Amino acid sequence: MTTNDASAMTGPTVDDTRARPSGTNAKVIRGAVLGSIVEYYDFGIYGYMATVLSAQFFVKDDPAAALLGTFAAFAVAFFLRVPGGIFFGHMGDKYGRKRALTWTILLMTVATAVMGMLPTYVTLGVWATVLLTLSRCLQGFAAGGELSGANSFVSEHAPRRWRAFHTSMVNAGVYIGSLCAALMALLLTSVLSEEQVGAWGWRLPFLLSLVIGLTGLWIRSSLDETKQFKELQRREEVEQVPLFALLRSAKREVLIIIALGGLITGGAYIASVYSATYLQTVGGHSPQLAFASICIAIVLGMITLPISGYLGDRVGRKPLLIAGSAAGAVLGVPMFMLMSDGPALLAAVAPGVLFICVSVVNGVSFAVYAEMLQARFRYSGIALGNNVTNMLLGGPAPFVATLLLTATGSELAPAGYFVVCALVSLVACAFVKETKGSELAA
Length: 442
Fold this sequence. Notes:
There is one protein chain. The protein is mostly helical. The protein has a single domain (23-219, 232-431), classed as MFS general substrate transporter like domains (Growth Hormone, Chain: A, Up-down Bundle). Helix content is 80%, strand content 0%. The chain has 21 helices and no strands. The chain is globular and about 60 Å long. It starts with a helix and ends in a 14-residue tail after the last helix.
């Protein structure tokens, strides 16, 4: 069934004449955004504290190996995102989007808080490393259901003419959560000495998860289920196993989602998480400059997202997808040249340029995903496609970039990874149909 064929089968329509959300939609967006902030603060703080965690949970004698080990644990979590996405996608498509989103935030909060309580390598040896990795895996499992569920939830509430604009705000919540994590890392390294951070300060951002997690849980519990899912329940058309229905009916769409997400997964983690390490280890810049640079990048991304979503609703999704992907492919190498050998000011701005490219694509991508899939397996389809891309390109990004740098000796090797991610998204654009203004398939 195509999107146009399905337009006649959708449930009650909503006012689509203005971009400003109605009271109900504003509450939905606020709840989804705040929940995403909580989730991605928890998920992102690990990456921003990578250099500290490598000294606390891995063998200190070889700093390069310890950093690789830390990023390997970072990558392992992304493999758990796929089963997490399948689990929460099943829950969201069978029992409701709201229930699934409530459980994702609860699991993420517990996993992050546990990290802050773990004994270190000095105390527990290799078992400390194992426990850290297991906690990170629980984070990955929870993250597998968050972004796909929040975007499914908001897209089903949004007016069709402003769907990309509304879903772009959800992704802005992801950036805000990451920004909060980066600001926390910046604050720790600025206020505390290196010895204090290593002794006890590194635990604080993880333990803070308990406070913000409970806040997010309360926010999520106050939201109403989407009308489209309620309509599926009323018609008794809820799938018993949504994943099977997805694979029978929408394999092509899932493959497009996997490829289209190259830049917003692999490219995003190179431009943010890995760039903080690259600026310090290759560029020779201070931790303060590195973290400040990532904060600037994320702020630029937050500004770009709603602009991209707005333009995607006005001129179409494909022009934005193509423009962001092509710009990323062209600018990857020059920006890494600035980070490795440029003056401090330009080096600090370079990750932001790359992150703008990512955000141009990200501003419309999840609206495209939602518009390609039917309601009975929408959550599962977005979760599977997005998390497979995260597993293949996103999670391994810092590890592979570090490995490429070590193996080749070329300071520009990590730029190649970013460019490849951008090219994967660019090629996928050829298979995307324009869906601007379409109704969601029932």
